[in-house]
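Whiteboard transcription, Tuesday session. T.W. wrote the structure tokens on the left side:
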């Protein structure tokens, strides 16, 4: 293996192997597991209580899984996937956050995105913004050998 090959000792890191990229992947992975697990239990045990909220939590979990994969993997297709997932997440947080505050009766139980992620320290609102900023910065970097 040559010294310039990806993964070789002394080679520059690729993609989300270090720094902010690694932190984003870790945060998205934690949110993916948390949202999918919570939604699965809610849907299995009390779906009739708040079907919209639980379905939206499940959808959020799927978005987090897709974003995690898109950020963690390399290649143009995965970057496009990450862009799409982060965009859908941001739009979802804004829409559900606004609707949950405007019509609380429609959301008898919280979703991950309710009140812009207030129950999760607003991380669901900040995370897609960080993801999109990171992806934009990465797209402007010169290609690595």
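and on the right, the sequence the group agreed on:
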């Amino acid at each position: 293996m040559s010294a310039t090959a990806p993964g070789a000792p002394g080679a520059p890191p690729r993609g989300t192997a270090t720094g902010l990229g690694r932190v984003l992947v870790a945060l998205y992975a934690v949110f993916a597991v948390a949202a999918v697990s919570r939604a699965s239990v809610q849907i299995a045990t009390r779906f009739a209580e708040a079907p919209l909220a639980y379905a939206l939590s499940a959808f959020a979990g799927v978005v987090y899984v897709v974003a995690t994969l898109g950020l963690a993997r390399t290649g143009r297709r995965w970057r496009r996937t990450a862009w799409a997932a982060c965009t859908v997440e941001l739009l979802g947080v804004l829409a559900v956050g606004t609707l949950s505050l405007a019509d609380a009766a429609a959301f008898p139980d919280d979703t991950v995105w309710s009140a812009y992620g207030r129950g999760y320290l607003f991380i669901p609102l900040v995370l897609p913004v960080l993801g999109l900023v990171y992806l934009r910065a990465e797209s402007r970097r010169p290609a690595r050998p």
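Someone added at the bottom: Helices lie at 19-46, 51-72, 76-102, 123-140.
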